[in-house]
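Ticket #4471: structure export looks truncated?
Reporter: QA, pipeline team
Priority: medium

Steps to reproduce: submit the single chain below to the structure queue and open the exported record.
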Amino acid sequence: MSSHAHEAAFREMFDTYETSIRAYCLRRLPASHVDDAVADTFLTVWRRRHDAPQGDELRLWLYGVARNVVRNDRRSTERSRRLRNRIIREPIAYQESPEVVVVRNAEERYLLAAIARLRPVEREILLLRTWERLSSSDVAIVMCLTPKAVDNRLARIKKKLTKMTAEPAAVILSPDPPPVVKGGEI
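Actual output as written to the record:
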């Protein structure tokens, strides 16, 4: 494939998936980090374009790349926070995650407070399934699990959320997430 063909294929892929990847990052990072995370995701994709799967698996591969970029951003943010704390010897105020911002602005504050108490892996599985609307098989690919493991974990997550909230988990886990406009705010 010529360099022009690679570039055209990349542009088509970018145009197709950029909005989904941006929404994924927006739900997980502060708004000020989203543009960089999206750029880093697609830079990684460009560098690894020869490793990219074809067809339906491409979308899941992109989510996996974005997930790693988000995790790197969070680690970097945490390292910076610890360094600032060491330098100035004063605790830095906790910066709320996009999920917490959504809770504050949405009617279901109790739900996202309960979701925030989930373990990070549980929260990621839940968000991939509900916010990104991925199937259990697709979540399994992104998280390097089996579909059965994803289904079992989702069942346990629903039970946990039911215990943490007054509402049944089936109502809580509606398939339609609230709309996201900017920075996790609705």
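Status: closed, not a bug. The export was complete when the record was re-opened. Leaving a note from the reviewer for reference: The CA atoms of residues 114 and 164 lie 6 Å apart.
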